[in-house]
Amino acid sequence: MRVALFITCVNDTLFPGTGRAVVTLLRRLGCDVEFPQAQTCCGQMHVNTGYPEEGRRLARHFVDVFAEYDAVVAPSGSCAAMVREQYPRLARAGDASFAGEVAETVPKVHDLSEFLVDVLGVTDVGAYFPHRVTYHPTCHSLRGLRLGDRPTRLLEQVRGLELVPLPGAEECCGFGGTFAVKNPAVSAAMCGDKVRNVAGTGAEVLCAADNSCLMHIGGTLKRQRTGVRIMHLAEILAATEATR
Amino acid sequence: MSGGTFLGMPAFPRNAAAAVQDSQLRFNLRKATHTIRGKRASVVAELPDWAELRAAGKEIKDHTLRNLDRYLLQLEEAVTAAGGHVHWAADAAEANRIVADLVKATGETSVVKVKSMATQEIGLNEALQEEGITAYETDLAELIVQLGDDWPSHILVPAIHRNRSEIREIFQEKMASYGRAAPEGLTDEPRALAEAARLHLRERFLSTKVAVSGANFMIAETGTLVVLESEGNGRMCLTLPETLISVVGIEKLLPSWRDLEVFLQLLPRSSTGERMNPYTSTWTGAVEGQEFHLVLLDNGRTRVLADEVGRQALRCIRCSACLNVCPVYERAGGHAYGSVYPGPIGAILTPQLRGMGSALDASLPYASTLCGACFDACPVAIDIPEVLVHLRGKARHPRAERLGMRAAGWVFDRPARLAGAQRLGARLRRFVPGRLPGPLAGWTDTRDIPDIPAESFRDWWDRTDGGAR
Amino acid sequence: MSGGAAGPDPTARAHAAGPDPRGRTGPGTGAATGGPGTGAATGGPGTGSRELILSRIRAAVAGAPEPGITRAYRTSPDQAGAVELFAERVADYRAVVHVVDADEVAGAITAALGRRAAGRVVVPDGLPEEWARAVRSAVEAGAVPLGRGTSGAGAAAIMRDAPALSAAELDAADGVVTSCAVGIAETGTIVLDAGPGQGRRALTLVPDYHLCVVRADQIVAGVPEAVGRLDPLRPLTWISGPSATSDIELNRVEGVHGPRTLEVVIAR
């Protein structure tokens, strides 16, 4: 199976460790991972901020880059949700050939946990991570992709890991892309509540499948000197005795 | 919308920033929304066929909107045949004039009102006041809002922003100027406050000759109107006065009587989190000797209907489930939205009804993180995030943002440009300040920014051949 | 249906509203008056706004797809245990509920009114004679009038709505006893349709206490069956527990403008 890694622009630029963890993990599970160098950004920021034309251009580029692969894996719930939910809408306003390519490519794009559980059929990925972890199911993973319990099933199989429930887990952290900049007061209030809930769990690590949300919550965790660190799901699943 | 009510209000972010600082409001809102959220979740979970009811609700509404002209004519015919009178109002001013003329024709100078979003939207009370007619709100929360010279902040519980002690103060200070004074020694017990409202309004119900209502549903097939309520003030207004005037948005139609079997399950459970609300009244035309007038209101609805993506907002049955699950509403409160329709539904309905000409209305589509909780809660499956994004695409953008987005688009158009930008960032990473300038300052006010890594993923892949070296 | 005033849609709904076919409150009664306000020639048929709105709609939906309607929801939930479920769900609203055999209804009425010490009780036309007698015996058993100080209150009496009671007279009543049209088990809802033994709508609204008798054969499992049994041309009141509000800090308070107490006798 030719698996393409869609790293996403945020991970590529700010969280390269997440990408390296995905590569490690998928290879350990026997996948042949490729990284199409032509990829850039899925267009989510543009579309969600109100620039559909730029977004459509980036969507076309995405489809051109990834059309040839059997599967595309993205370590980002919100970018996978962007492709799955918004590309068909963007295509509707485009030409018929683009709509056809979108219909062809979209079903092959998976969030990491979907790919592991649904495509590879594994929940025990052989990881070892002896820490207390709480999981935040980000909005687009939860309500966009409907990941359900896939991420937590994966975490539950990690040896040594103690998973503690996060109160109010399904509530948004207040990031919302440009929302955090356009509505900083409400965004900060939402994040404050999220951070209180995270700190209250006594977890060492806050895990999520979306680094943009983790960046938001983590920025507040750090500013408040809570001592809780953030980790992407891929980084925990890639960890083994050898790496600890 | 409402006669000058919200005109000139600042944009949402400023209103919200002030609300976020109000700790009493934050507490009231949090408690209220979480309470009602939990109640809704449990009664919705009780029904094994909720998803099917929701799908039927959505489809019935879509079908009605697609054939709205035909169904309105059918409704008009049925209401008229049952002894009612039907009036058509293209906008708020016309609806207000029709109602005022009807009230004047009775010779009365006061009306009692059933809680109605449509009449708030058109500013009916203020318009009647100008004609020398006093409109008395009779729903407990609307009474609190009216006595407090306040604005409603929620569709279902308009005084959600007030707590018991504030309500007690309002009753003690204001009731006397509207009618029967608050009882001596009124406490802030909810029971005592409800009793004070009962006593205050009872005499008015028994003596007022004209009532004004909205409606939750109108049935085209039979000409039947439906009002759901809890307190009985609706029943008082609908049954005791000699004349009843109902002002209803044209989108409130259902094709057939049978369709109520869907909506009388969807609405109460979504709205108050009850299996059924205490009282529902249905009437067809003029009943029990009453004079009945129906005013059909457009006021921007046909404009919403013309938008392929945005028209789904007209499915709304005003249950307020989206407000109660919205994390933004929970912190900003209803007033920040500058409209009688707050919360997620307001963020898509108001800019469509009023247009996005004002700073406030242009800011509403951005009053959301697109978290999707509203879509899941909506009993008629309005994809609010989809409409928000759609409206953002039509909004006017600040120049600096336009330039920034264009620059970002330029970088993302070519992988080489992206790689170049990443390397530039990596080289400058030690110089990134802890506090960012301009519009990004909102971020660093309360959050640290992530460290920029020395090497991007793509450069790592290049250098190591994907980790092979 | 053409919306004629000729009665309900003939597409065969079983009307379980009791023996009264098209009672006093059929459509169109008292509505033949041209009424005032016909001077409101705004927006009536053939006027500008009517045509304007209709043409705006036609322009707005031109070419839009015609959505289908799938009704995959339950329309006949399990009828078994409906009476017990109804009793449980009515009680959930903090109404007072009694389940008795059919021949015990009269006794239950007398006992309930006795507990209320109700002296002035409204009895609508068409209430079964045996139940009306039960009301009489309760009232005559020396119920203590509540004497709210309104004129006309005080003397214990059966109050009939013929000639029609004024709002003030209703306000001075201690309670009202009615039958009903339909009961809905799943939601604990009682529906009145102004049929025999139910009276016009104000009778069950203004007095502070409503005692309602529901026969087992009037109880249906869910909302769809109830809608199917009811006649939309009659004024309907759906009642689920006593009047209530949650407007103050979302605290539910029973009893605002409608009856503060709802008592239900279910006749097995």
UniProtKB/TrEMBL annotation, chain A:
<feature type="domain" description="Cysteine-rich">
    <location>
        <begin position="133"/>
        <end position="217"/>
    </location>
</feature>
<dbReference type="InterPro" id="IPR004017">
    <property type="entry name" value="Cys_rich_dom"/>
</dbReference>
<protein>
    <submittedName>
        <fullName>L-lactate dehydrogenase complex protein LldE</fullName>
    </submittedName>
</protein>
<feature type="domain" description="Cysteine-rich">
    <location>
        <begin position="3"/>
        <end position="83"/>
    </location>
</feature>
<dbReference type="Pfam" id="PF02754">
    <property type="entry name" value="CCG"/>
</dbReference>
From TrEMBL, chain B:
<dbReference type="Pfam" id="PF02589">
    <property type="entry name" value="LUD_dom"/>
</dbReference>
<dbReference type="InterPro" id="IPR003741">
    <property type="entry name" value="LUD_dom"/>
</dbReference>
<dbReference type="InterPro" id="IPR024185">
    <property type="entry name" value="FTHF_cligase-like_sf"/>
</dbReference>
<protein>
    <submittedName>
        <fullName>L-lactate dehydrogenase complex protein LldF</fullName>
    </submittedName>
</protein>
<dbReference type="Pfam" id="PF11870">
    <property type="entry name" value="LutB_C"/>
</dbReference>
<keyword id="KW-0004">4Fe-4S</keyword>
<keyword id="KW-0408">Iron</keyword>
<dbReference type="Pfam" id="PF13183">
    <property type="entry name" value="Fer4_8"/>
</dbReference>
<dbReference type="InterPro" id="IPR004452">
    <property type="entry name" value="LutB/LldF"/>
</dbReference>
<keyword id="KW-0411">Iron-sulfur</keyword>
<feature type="domain" description="4Fe-4S ferredoxin-type">
    <location>
        <begin position="313"/>
        <end position="382"/>
    </location>
</feature>
<keyword id="KW-0677">Repeat</keyword>
<dbReference type="InterPro" id="IPR009051">
    <property type="entry name" value="Helical_ferredxn"/>
</dbReference>
<keyword id="KW-0813">Transport</keyword>
<dbReference type="InterPro" id="IPR017896">
    <property type="entry name" value="4Fe4S_Fe-S-bd"/>
</dbReference>
UniProtKB/TrEMBL annotation, chain C:
<dbReference type="InterPro" id="IPR037171">
    <property type="entry name" value="NagB/RpiA_transferase-like"/>
</dbReference>
<dbReference type="InterPro" id="IPR024185">
    <property type="entry name" value="FTHF_cligase-like_sf"/>
</dbReference>
<feature type="compositionally biased region" description="Gly residues">
    <location>
        <begin position="25"/>
        <end position="47"/>
    </location>
</feature>
<feature type="region of interest" description="Disordered">
    <location>
        <begin position="1"/>
        <end position="49"/>
    </location>
</feature>
<dbReference type="Pfam" id="PF02589">
    <property type="entry name" value="LUD_dom"/>
</dbReference>
<protein>
    <submittedName>
        <fullName>L-lactate dehydrogenase complex protein LldG</fullName>
    </submittedName>
</protein>
<feature type="domain" description="LUD">
    <location>
        <begin position="84"/>
        <end position="266"/>
    </location>
</feature>
<dbReference type="InterPro" id="IPR003741">
    <property type="entry name" value="LUD_dom"/>
</dbReference>
